[in-house]
Design brief:
Radius of gyration: 17 Å
Oligomer: single chain
Shape: globular
Number of strands: 5
Order of helices and strands: EHEEHEHEHHHHHHH
Structural class: alpha/beta
Strand order of the largest sheet: 2-1-3-4-5
Length: about 210
């Protein structure tokens, strides 16, 4: 096990803050920061994703240490997810799902520059983008993924990246070699001129591909 990831907690409600810290205490891969210590990841716990919460998220990201942010929300709708990622969130979790395993996975993914999202939220965004493609496309039945130049294999890899899985885990689930998974992600980032895996997921969500 490597050095624990230094994590801070931001919450509007002291009860939510205490609960989040209690969960993080049970994660051996992370350590809660002390006053004066810079956090690598900030876990921000909120009831909903609105303008005040997004303003705080941007403020956290703009601090000198520029920590990555995992947003844990009581309610998380597709529009709120898109706004949160645009504001700089690396990971999104619903509060009822933020147990020790999922929260630690999201924090560790954020520390690596990766992005995590609830799988069902990805499905809802995919359904919405697909409906939009059928409504606005010239042929009505066109596949929005094909029109965007993403294959089924690329979509599958991106969905697992968004869920916080590492290369070896993705390879095992999809029955590919780790080298193939790395190549797929590399091809996507190069084609769309993206910086990294997290940027690829954020871009795909922002333009309605996930």
């Amino acid at each position: 096990m490597g050095v624990p990831v230094p994590v801070d907690v931001v919450a509007f409600d002291p009860v939510l803050e205490a609960g989040t810290k209690s969960t993080l205490f049970a994660c051996p891969e992370v350590s809660l920061t002390v006053p004066g210590e810079a956090a690598r990841v900030v876990v921000m716990t909120v009831d909903q994703v609105g303008r005040p919460e997004l303003d705080v998220l941007r403020t956290v990201r703009d601090t000198p240490a520029r920590p990555d942010v995992v947003l844990v929300a009581g309610e998380l709708a597709p529009d709120g997810a898109l706004h949160a990622i645009a504001a700089g969130a690396r990971g999104l979790l619903r509060r009822r799902e933020a147990d020790v395993t999922r929260l630690s996975r999201a924090v560790l993914a954020a520390s690596r520059g990766d992005c995590t999202l609830p799988p069902d939220l990805l499905d809802r965004l995919l359904e919405r983008s697909g409906a939009g493609g059928r409504a606005g496309g010239s042929d009505g039945g066109a596949d929005p993924w094909a029109a965007a130049g993403l294959s089924d294999r690329e979509r599958s890899v991106l969905r697992l990246v968004a869920d916080g899985h590492e290369t070896n885990e993705i390879a095992k689930q999809l029955c590919y070699s780790p080298r193939t998974v790395t190549s797929v992600v590399h091809d996507i980032t190069q084609r769309f001129r993206l910086r990294n895996r997290a940027h690829a997921v954020a871009y795909a969500m922002r333009v309605g591909l996930l």
